[in-house]
Amino acid sequence: MALDTPTAHRRTPAPTISRGARVRDYGIVVALVAIVIALSLSTDTFLSTGNLVNLLDQCAVVGLLATGATVCIISGVFDLTASATLALSAIVGVQLVRTVGVLGGFAAAVVAGALLGLVTGTIVVRSGVNSFIATLATSIIYRGLAVVVTAGSIIYPLPEQAEDFGMLTWPSVFGLTSATIVFVVVVAGIGVLIAATTFGRRVYAVGGNVEAARLSGIRVGQIHVAVYVVSGICSALAGLILASRAGSAQSSMATGMELTAIAAAVIGGTSILGGEGAIWRGVVGALLLTLIGNGFNLLGWDTIYQQVVQGCLILVAVAVDRYLRKRGR
């Protein structure tokens, strides 16, 4: 997708880091360290190699979705299609695995995620409807297509492909699963894209002040479409990880997980008003939510309270963001 090329006298300013952003950075790191210390002192198994490997593997799916959500929110839009895109991309991948092989099917799933993101972004930009409502409607369409394609059934690769299809669950570098390695590599790549490129500066500029960005020569519509493509790719990779674990795909995969991804981004300090945030913060937010779930399991606490804790974290994060903006810090 070609993005606009500014003339020589137009330069997109690099995003400035406010004191408020530094406070949010500091707060999320402190919260993460505090939970790690508390769990380390409360259980004998938290720091075991097996638990840490499992923790990172569990974080991979939510972390990828949170990465896509963070990119979108920084640019000033929401993506509620993430979990539906995840399911539909995984279904496409499994269907094609049966005919073109595992690697070909995996590649097709990623392409499908990118195309679905392109469609979502085009709908949001062309319709002019608020992104929250437009992506909510689009997610229902995608989920419906997933039901139509599968006829409501679970789909599997061919029996002889089952072992290779599970490759994302295999141990890899330092004993980490292949899914974790994919997660780390993709997040690092997108982090550099957003933090250190012209495209990234334009994403921040559009999210910070869309009209000012437009007047400075940035093609706002192209930026919004591009961030949805990034989100679609992240969703497709998350779908492949889930499908590889289960050895199958179905239309109900990851239902509601897009809200968890947005929660991770917000808890990580990404402003819901756009223009502020960082990929690493969204990932830390996802890790924080995963740690909470892991802690509930290790401590034997009733997991029905887990959602209450997560909801409180979201409220606190949004309240802090609003307070810091109001104070102009």
Automatic annotation (TrEMBL):
The residue ranges crossing the membrane are: 26-47, 59-82, 102-125, 132-156, 176-199, 220-243, 249-267, 279-298, 304-324
> At the top level of its lineage, which domain of life is listed?
Bacteria
Major subcellular site: membrane
Q: Which UniProt keywords apply?
A: Cell membrane, Membrane, Transmembrane, Transmembrane helix
Q: How does it sit in the membrane?
A: Multi-pass membrane protein
Q: Which InterPro entries match?
A: ABC_transp_permease (IPR001851)
> Localized where?
Cell membrane
Q: What is this protein called?
A: ABC transporter permease
